[in-house]
Design a protein that fits this description.
Blueprint: H1 6-16, H2 40-59, H3 92-105, H4 110-127, H5 132-146, H6 151-163, H7 167-180, H8 185-197, H9 201-214, H10 218-230, H11 234-247, H12 251-267, H13 271-284, H14 289-301, H15 305-318, H16 322-335, H17 340-360, H18 366-376, H19 379-392, H20 396-408, H21 412-422, H22 430-442, H23 446-459, H24 467-477
Helix pairs in contact: 2-17, 3-4, 4-5, 4-6, 5-6, 6-7, 6-8, 7-8, 8-9, 8-10, 9-10, 10-11, 11-12, 12-13, 12-14, 13-14, 14-15, 15-16, 16-17, 17-18, 18-19, 18-20, 19-20, 20-21, 20-22, 21-22, 22-23, 22-24, 23-24
């Protein structure tokens, strides 16, 4: 077979999509000694098995694209490929499978590779699977090698960088895509995301207005709404999201927007309304992870801890991410059964397993590490992670994380300015107010602490299974709600 032929390219793609070999050392080797269920070693083995389950969940069914260059494959005009609209029809998994099949026979279709890369990013977002990110990168790089500067692939690289929390790169690629096509919806949307996550809120607001003028639609509407929420304009946020939901037609759009409304109303303490939105999202997509997680959080806040625990156990069994793992651990702590403390510790330990896997796949996980470790892990590691994240981006979320990490390390005078900065834009988050109140109390600002804790519990009294109880106890010690 002569190099540079279409058959050669097809053979290379077939080799790229071959599944990886299974590991030789599985968890059930017969030569391992058996342990009693309650022994410390048995508990460690269970944790190890859970960590393996995380890895398996992140790689099962993955079609691993090769990282080698397509030397000898001549770039030609692409034949009509699989349109991006395919991703809005049927399941994402079946769309990815169709794209993979198509690219085995049409390996020079730069549009197909771009669409596949974006599909992997979307799958990682909805399934919590960072192992898809290297696959997305390779697919998008193929597209750009076949047709340099094609705006769908550049926009895809922007979305990938944002997913990995590399927001300067996300902004750079978005700008490059918009230089090629000023109306690229993905680039317009990801540019807003990047500016928000870099803490450049005024620029993000302008970018949202610009995107709304150029490409009004659900991806832009939801970003526009979030920019307004960050400024404390919940009324506009709610109105825009409701309008977006009324115009949503695909199951993916309905699930996404309904979940955004559920999360907003949960943050506002409207638990029954939040549950209604989460149920609407799950009617559209019964396994949509953010909706499953949001429903469990709302159930917990609404007093249905049994349903909340069952729901969150289902979430972490599917996709063990830091947020759900921490919430499930706190739900166990709040329940207070005989084995619940050990169960809670197991959840917190698994956060480290997820973090290691995320970093192995190019994801910056410092913010996740800081928030989880500050309350349930290595406090010094939490502070290191929070400082590193603050150096990269000065947002309300990183300010809150750094403030709390400083607090748990006994450095409250340093923490207070960051806690105040976290609440300075008007963004309404009970956790931020709780953190600020606890730091104010520790620095002797009792009047301010009473006000902040009162505001946290008034806004969202079920913001955390553990934190809310501590906030109530501290507020009582300060003389009660203001």
């Amino acid at each position: 077979m002569a190099p540079g032929t279409n058959e050669d390219a097809q053979e290379k793609v077939r080799a790229d999509v071959a599944p990886p070999p299974e590991g030789k050392d599985g968890p059930d080797r017969p030569d391992r000694p058996k342990e009693s269920p309650g022994s410390p070693r048995a508990r460690m083995l269970r944790l190890g098995a859970s960590a393996v389950a995380i890895a398996v969940a992140m790689t099962a069914g993955a079609v691993v694209l090769g990282s080698k260059d397509d030397d000898g494959v001549r770039t030609v005009a692409s034949a009509p490929g699989v349109a991006p609209e395919l991703l809005g029809t049927g399941s994402l998994a079946s769309s990815i499978s169709a794209l993979q099949t198509h690219l085995k026979t049409q390996p020079k279709d730069y549009g197909g590779w771009s669409t596949l890369g974006v599909a992997y990013i979307e799958q990682a977002r909805t399934n919590g699977d960072p192992s898809r990110y290297p696959q997305a990168e390779r697919a998008l790089d193929r597209s750009l090698k076949l047709k340099p500067d094609n705006d769908p692939a550049l926009a895809g690289r922007s979305a990938l960088a944002a997913a990995r929390h590399d927001f300067p790169d996300a902004l750079r690629y978005a700008d490059k895509a918009l230089d090629e096509n000023a109306y690229n919806e993905r680039a317009l949307s990801t540019r807003i995301d990047a500016l928000v996550e870099l803490g450049r809120y005024k620029e993000a607001s302008k970018a949202a207005d610009q995107a709304d003028a150029r490409r009004p639609g659900i991806p832009v509407f939801t970003r526009y709404a979030y920019v307004r929420e960050l400024r404390g304009d919940v009324t506009t946020t709610r109105r825009v999201l409701k309008q977006a939901l009324s115009s949503a037609s695909t199951p993916g759009d309905i699930a996404y927007v309904a979940t955004a409304l559920g999360q907003l109303t949960w943050r506002e303490g409207e638990y029954k309304t939040a549950l209604t939105y989460f149920e609407q999202a799950l009617r559209a997509d019964k396994v949509y992870l953010p909706a499953l997680e949001g429903r469990a959080r709302a159930q917990a806040a609404n007093g249905d801890s049994k349903a909340a625990i069952a729901g969150m156990e289902d979430v972490v069994a599917r996709f063990p991410l830091p947020g759900p793992l921490v919430v499930l651990g706190e739900l166990y702590e709040a329940r207070g059964g005989e084995q619940d403390k050990a169960k809670a510790r197991d959840q917190y330990a698994l956060v480290n397993a997820w973090t290691a896997l995320a970093r192995a796949n190019g994801v910056n996980a410092d913010l996740d590490t800081a928030l989880a470790a500050a309350d349930h892990g290595d406090r010094k590691a939490a502070l290191r992670a929070a400082r590193a994240e603050w150096e990269r981006r000065e947002t309300v979320h990183t300010a809150d994380a750094l403030a709390w990490a400083l607090h748990v390390n006994g450095r409250d005078d340093e923490a207070l300015p960051y806690a105040r900065r976290a609440t300075a834009t008007g963004y309404r988050d009970a956790t931020f107010l709780y953190h600020r109140g606890m730091i104010e109390r520790a620095t002797g600002n009792k009047k301010e602490a009473r006000s902040s804790l009162s505001a946290a519990l008034k806004l969202n009294p079920g913001f955390s299974p553990v934190g809310a109880k501590l906030a109530e106890k501290t507020l009582t010690a300060l003389g009660g709600a203001k």
